[in-house]
Each structure stands twice: as structure tokens, then as C-alpha cells.
Amino acid sequence: MEEKTNMTAERSLEIITEQIERTQRTITRNSSWSHIWWGTCVIVLALLIAYLWKNHGGPVWNFLWILIWPFGYAGEWFIRKGRQPVPRNFVAKTIGHVWGTFGIFIGTIGIILGLAGSGILPLTFTVNDDLPDAHLYINLTSIISLCFGIASTITGSILNNRIVQICGFLAGLGGFFCALQYPWAEQLYVMAVVAFIGLVIPGIVIRLQCRN
Fold first, then answer.
1. What distances in angstroms separate CA 201 from CA 60, 90, 120, one per listed residue?
2. How high is the pLDDT of residue 183?
């Protein structure tokens, strides 16, 4: 009886492992077009805003970033129609939580810094007694790049996908340090490169792997 129980437990563990691996493969395969689509949206908007910023009115054109949500989710809706269904197990839920957290943090930071930049919400901090009201400068592009890299690298680890991990790591750290080297509008070019390395390249590689 004990031997039968052990065999049942071992078989249950094998089934769970197989389901996790199957979910990892399915999510990875399904994510190829999403990577490419969202990366393309970021690249197009970044280059468009950079052009308008430098030639037609300055940083006010950053409001166009709001377009990434309707365009992104519209494309995602079409992509999901052709996807293989994925069971809502802890793998899928964890990935959803990772990117949901990323969206909440970046959205909140963007709103706060937007209000600060408009003067509605002044942000100051104390450096020392001689400079009691020095203005806080925060490079939003660096923050977004780093948070994106963290989320992407964690996702690659969950999916056991090396290309997503490597590209996320390179895009996150590379974007963080590169954005610090460029002023204002030029940082949008960094954002476009981050999207290409962290989203488009993994999407293309995954797509090619799925064809083999």
C-alpha cells in the first residue's frame, strides 16, 4: 500500500512538472507577436515624439505616450484571437503579476513626475544646510528602462527562456546607464533601442524557434 502511495505521489509530481513545462512553452510561443507588437509601438512613438519635440514645440509632445495603451491593446486583442489557450496556473498568474506591478509602478511614477514638471506637485529635497531647497532631478527614461529590464529578466526566469533573460538584462542596464548620458529628447532614442533589444529581438527569436 505504501509503495502504491509513493508511486501515486511521484506520478502526481511528474504530471505537475509536465503541466508547468507545457505552460512555459505555450506562454513563450504566444508571447512572440506580443513582444514584436509592443516593441514596435514603443519604437514608433519614441521616434515620433523625439522628432516633434525637437522640431515642433518641445516636451509637450510627451502626452502622445498615452496612445500606446489603445494601440497596444488593440493589437494585443487581434494577437490573442490566434493564440493557443493557456491554463491559469501559477506560472501564468505570476507573469501577470510581474507586468501588472511594472505597469503600476511606472504609471504612478510617470503621473507624479508629470505633475511635478507642470508645477502642480513641487518636489524638493534637502541636500545640506547651504542648499535646503534643491530641486530633485529624476531621469524617467533610466527608471523605466531599469524597471522594464527587471520585469523582463524575471519573466525570462519564470519561463526558463534564456533569450528573454539576456535581452531584458541588456536592455534594462544598458538603457539605465545610456539614458543618463543624453539630455531630454535624445533619451527617446535610448527608449527606442531598449524596446528593440528587450522586446523586438526576443519576439523575432522566439518566432523563429517556434518554426523549427
1. 30, 27, 39
2. 78
pLDDT tens digits for range 148-169: 999 999 988 888 888 989 999 9
Listed in sequence order, the residues at least 6 apart from 118 whose beta carbon sits closer than 8 Å to its beta carbon are none
List strand residue ranges (DSSP E) for the chain, in order.
124-125, 134-135
Domain hosting residue 37, numbered range:
14-211
| pLDDT at residue 82, as a whole number | 66
Element (H, E) at 146: helix 140-159
Structural domain count, the chain? 1
CA quadruple 61, 66, 70, 73: dihedral, nearest 10: 120
The pTM (predicted TM-score) of the whole model is: 0.78
